Amino acid sequence: MSATGVVRTRTLIPEAENATLRVGRRTVQLTNLDKLFWPELGLTKRDLLQYYADVSSALLPHLRDRAMVMKRYPNGIHGKCFFMKRTPPSRPEWIETCDIMHKSGNLIDFPMAQDLASLLWLVNLGCIDLNQWYGRCDDVDRPDYLHFDLDPVEGADFPKVRETAAVVRDALTELGMDPLAKTSGSKGLHLYVPIVRGPLQKEVWRFAKALAKRLAQRHPALITAEYR
Hints:
By secondary structure, the chain is of the alpha+beta class.
């Protein structure tokens, strides 16, 4: 029961190696659930799926209606990973897609995580971390947040990452913005800043690049700016 008195049912990932899970009116095929994804911790693919099921009510509002770039780790965190954009042809018919024109002229159908079933389907592909589009599918060129990726260079420890995050946070709050921090899934931190949708992606990138360069100039012993 939640603090508001609403009873919430927990979705449990089955104990079998392979399983068919009923999620609402949909059925999700889950595979290789006993595979170790974090051998040192004894955590399996099942544990990963259970984690995402448990946090889905808080997570899905931030993913819904966004194209998802799949970063797949089929053999766990230490195995080779690869990026995948196109939705696999074998997807269930209820997986919604977002069509985005690539600079090559090809139309790419990205999957979207619209509900718990589609989220678990994505994670079952080996997606440990989730990489959503900056803009929602109805206007992919106009993001509703900007993002700073703080990665430590060789020799820098996590306290330095926190110090850098505080510098970036202070600069953003001075501009009237409200940044939110989260761990990156690797060794750094990400700062996300909700913005009013309107500026084009290139304009948002230009702002982020200019701010990063200015902070690197002010704090050369702490910050370097790399724009990708």
